[in-house]
From TrEMBL:
InterPro entries: LPS_length_determ_N (IPR003856). Residues 205-259 are annotated as: Disordered. GO terms for cellular component: plasma membrane. The chain crosses the membrane at residues 16-35, 177-196. Keywords: Cell membrane, Membrane, Transmembrane, Transmembrane helix. Its main location: membrane. This is Capsular polysaccharide biosynthesis protein. It is found in: Cell membrane. Residues 2-85 form the Polysaccharide chain length determinant N-terminal domain. Pfam families: Wzz (PF02706).
Length: 259
């Protein structure tokens, strides 16, 4: 069965198609109503050297060490143990930590930027999650440098480019749910119409054809019973007859005397 055959079936069973379309519209509307909108917070931090006598403007200093440290922090912040720690601290939203403004493969990038994206059902939850991830990044950076006994002049810090605040509304989850329900409903609806068409066609073929009306002869016709025989009146004989009128005797005599 190709697309043209399916279109013919949908057109032939237009009532069933209309019902399936109405049900699909109701389901899509219900998904839009039930799936809540979400909030997203994006925070961007930059790994820079700490201010010192040698570094007066950290934004003008670009070193591969900063990029390596950013890649290290992204690896730690996305590890399963740290992800579980986010959940234990009350961050229930979706957390994404990437390097180089969205590139997840840190081994192929060379950027000192760390991008944190948190999506949650509430605005406060999104902000809390972004702040939690940023604070964990600060702690990891400080603890590792403390363990390596790095001097203050050589330390690296995180500088906020975009702070974790100002949540924005996103409907990405709603659009994904609507797309999934619409696609699945469309497939199931078309399949249901095709199956219903085959069932109805097979049922109509199994039903016996209606009997043709039989003309009544000599009374009502009943199957298996001989009709009652009724005497039929014989047709009247309407053959022409010749009638003779009698002749009076006076007319006969008068006629004879005239002669």
């Amino acid at each position: 069965m190709d697309a043209l055959d399916i279109l013919r079936v949908l057109r032939r069973r237009w009532k069933i198609t209309a019902v399936a379309a109405a049900v699909l519209v109701v389901l899509v509307g219900a998904v839009l109503f039930l799936v809540p909108k979400q909030y997203k917070v994006t925070a961007i931090s930059l790994v820079t050297p700490a201010l010192s006598q040698d570094v007066q403007n950290p934004y003008t200093v670009a070193d591969r060490v900063q990029s390596q440290m950013a890649a290290l922090l992204v690896t730690v912040l996305t590890s399963p143990a740290v992800t579980d720690w986010y959940t234990a601290q009350g961050a229930n939203g979706t957390i994404e930590v990437t390097n180089a403004n969205g590139v997840t493969d840190t081994s192929q990038t060379d950027s000192p930027f760390i991008t944190i994206i948190v999506t949650d059902k509430s605005a406060d939850g999104a902000v809390h999650g972004a702040q939690l991830v940023r604070q964990r990044a600060l702690d990891e950076l400080k603890n590792r440098q403390d363990a390596a006994k790095v001097t203050a002049a050589q330390r690296l810090i995180l500088t906020d480019v975009l702070p974790p605040a100002d949540p924005t509304t996103t409907r990405a989850s709603q659009y994904r749910a609507v797309g999934l329900v619409a696609a699945l409903g469309l497939v199931l609806g078309v399949l249901g119409v095709v199956i219903a068409d085959r069932v109805l066609t097979a049922r109509s073929r199994r039903e016996p054809a209606p009997e043709q009306p039989v003309a009544k002869v000599n009374g009502d016709h009943r199957q298996g019973v001989l009709p009652d025989l009724r005497p039929v009146a014989a047709p009247k004989d309407e053959s022409p007859t010749i009638k003779f009128s009698p002749v009076r005797s006076e007319e006969k005599q008068g006629g004879g005397s005239r002669r």
